[in-house]
Amino acid sequence: MITQIEGLHHVTSMAANAQENNDFFTKVLGLRRVKKTVNFDAPDVYHLYYGDEVGTPGSVMTYFPFPDMNQGVAGAGEVGVTEFSVPVDALPYWQDRLASQGVKSLEKNDNFGESRLEFRGPDGDGFALVERSGDDVRTPWTGGGVPEDVGIKGFSGARLRLRDTGPEAELLRFMGYETVETADGLTRMVRENANGANVLDLESMPSAGRARQGAGSVHHIAFAVPDRAAQLAVRKALTDTGYQVTPVIDRDYFWAIYFRTPGGILFEVATNEPGFDRDEDTAHLGAELKLPSQHEHLRARLEQLLEPIRD
């Protein structure tokens, strides 16, 4: 069994408009933009990162905003809901705040004894705010005007939509997660002694069509490991089990490996090092356009091509 995984590292999705995406996460949800860079494989597209003050692993939502991208189609084989942790009794504040901002599809419900507020992002993205008890001691980012006693602490976890949850559950058990409860078509799996972003719910959707990615779709979900040595150990364990895992890729702010799960979801394993302050000090994270070294020679063209983002 893999023991090095500490919970989620980040979740990466796609959007159709960079400004709208930026405004939703910084002005509506009150997160901090901790990095403004570009897609490694398509440098004419932004890669935007949002999280807590320093972009702590387990707090970071990232986006590729492809201009005018068609909306994704929900279905099996995807991360259907990305879930953020908030303090107990914070949901009334968030219901009022989100409703006043015109956020769509607000719905309060309970899963496994936790109160939740589900809602949709600008591109139809599925999100939930989950009231977590005192076991989540992370400090929320308050720079967006959200009071600390109701602020988002980072991820709680995510809901994976699958035709068959069995193979995915087997993989997650191998990755150190434990099944703690099953109810109403959901299987809850938890990584104990983790970073707070430690809950995955597997939703059984045996008759659902396959998801089709587009704006509002999660591109991949990433798991955190402390360093490169731990990542190499995880990679060896996965490849020894038969998974096709990419070589280690330098993503500037972390090193990454990727593999496809039995249910068709793209998993990443990312290091906590070196972090988002490697090229900007903490006070100015996300302020300037940062380019991977292989794209630095394109700066003049990209600064003309990429639509400026108003803060």
TrEMBL record:
Gene3D superfamilies according to UniProt: 2,3-Dihydroxybiphenyl 1,2-Dioxygenase, domain 1 (3.10.180.10)
Keywords, comma-separated and alphabetical: Dioxygenase, Oxidoreductase
UniProt lineage: Bacteria, Pseudomonadati, Pseudomonadota, Alphaproteobacteria, Rhodobacterales
Start and end residues of each VOC domain: 7-132, 154-272
InterPro entries with a match to the protein in the record: Extradiol_RC_dioxygenase, Glyas_Bleomycin-R_OHBP_Dase, Glyas_Fos-R_dOase_dom, VOC_core
GO molecular function: dioxygenase activity
Protein name per UniProt: Dioxygenase
Pfam families found in the cross-reference section: Glyoxalase
